[in-house]
Amino acid sequence: MDARLGSTAVTPQGGASPADASAPALRNSFFDALPLPVLEALRPETETVLLPRGSCLMTLARNVPHVYFPLGSLLTVDVARAGAAASHLRVVGSDGMAGGLSMLVGADLPTLSVSVIRGGTSLRVPGAAFREVLAGSADLRRAVRAYTVVLRGNVERWTALPGNAALGAPLLARINDALARQH
Question: How far apart are CA 106 and CA 173, in angstroms?
């Protein structure tokens, strides 16, 4: 969590320790950059969890159960392709989040899933709590929108790859529609 809120840092082993402990603290730069009122609203619902390698955290076709802010873990956002192996759309590390896009775009993204490719720790916020703060906070909507603009670039590049246009174009259209509604 954020030192501005008087909380503890997380060591690489996943345990809580005072911020001045000798082990380096794991942070999430996206989460840490959120304005203080947003952090205060999310804090009561935020927990640090250990994510085992290989676990599937969510399929975005369903209501998003949690939004993740990786600390020591790495997540992958994959696109399912009929008759072929899933294709990696992007990797999410300690500078991003997973699950927030569906809050902005809408939860019906049936081809996307989020899995753990390197086990470790992550901050986890229940989807309902994140959705509630998102609805009431222009600051959080701006932050998620800015993150989505970056993600749109990943989706544009992925869509341009051979064989990805049929799946990528609808996702890109949903992202563009959501971004246009945010103005």
Answer: 12
The answer to whether 121 touches 71, Cβ cutoff 8 Å, is yes
For the record, the structure tokens of 113 come out as 């899933």
| Positive or negative: CA dihedral 106, 132, 66, 74 | positive
Residue 26: beta bridge partners? 10
Instruction: Give residue-wise pLDDT tens across range 61-93.
Output: 556 889 999 999 999 988 876 666 777 888 899
CA-based radius of gyration for the chain: 16
**Segment 94-114, tens digit of pLDDT:** 999 998 777 766 655 657 788
Packed helices 138-160 and 165-181: angle between N→C axes, nearest 10 degrees: 160
pLDDT of residue 44: 94
Q: What strands, in cross-sheet order, belong to the sheet with 120-126?
A: 47-51, 120-126, 66-70
Q: Which two tokens stand for residue 57?
A: 């955290």
Which tokens go with 72? 């020591």
In whole angstroms, what is the distance from residue 105 CA to residue 174 CA?
A: 6
Return all residues near 107 (Cβ < 8 A) that are at least 6 apart.
60, 61, 62, 63, 64
